[in-house]
Automatic annotation (TrEMBL):
Organism: Candidatus Magasanikbacteria bacterium RIFOXYC2_FULL_40_16
Domain of life of the organism encoding this protein: Bacteria
Name by which UniProt lists this protein: Four helix bundle protein
Coiled coil: none
Gene3D superfamilies per UniProt: 23S rRNA-intervening sequence
Pfam families (alphabetical): 23S_rRNA_IVP (PF05635)
């Protein structure tokens, strides 16, 4: 069985971000396991889960609400990764690997939200 959200480009990009976030956070300090590591991972997964949940809603308005939550989670991931750089858990080069995906997904989610707002 395939659901509608699985066909979307934002789904593929969300999965890419989840995979990258798990790799990037793997080497965070052990004492961050319940802090920045967990929060960054949960936020990355939240992007995809809200796309999936929203895609099952009956109205465009409800779907858009979940897309907007996905955007918030994406910005949260971006912020957490930037904070990890400031804490010297990651290097700028590691952010440079994920940043284009974050940017692309952000603009695609904004586009989806605008479409659903019509």
């Amino acid at each position: 069985m395939e659901f509608g959200y699985e066909k979307l480009e934002v789904t593929k990009l969300s999965k890419d971000i989840i995979k990258k976030v798990y790799i990037l956070t793997k080497n965070f300090p052990r004492d961050e396991i319940y802090g920045l590591t967990s929060q960054t991972r949960r936020a990355s997964v939240s992007i995809l889960l809200n796309i999936a949940e929203g895609g099952n809603k009956k109205s465009k308005k409800d779907y858009n609400r979940f897309v907007r939550i996905s955007i918030g989670s994406l910005v949260e991931v971006d912020c957490a990764i930037k904070m990890a750089i400031e804490l010297n858990y990651l290097g700028q080069d590691q952010y440079n690997e994920i940043e284009p995906i974050i940017k692309e997904l952000y603009f695609k989610l904004i586009g989806l939200s605008k479409y659903l707002s019509k």
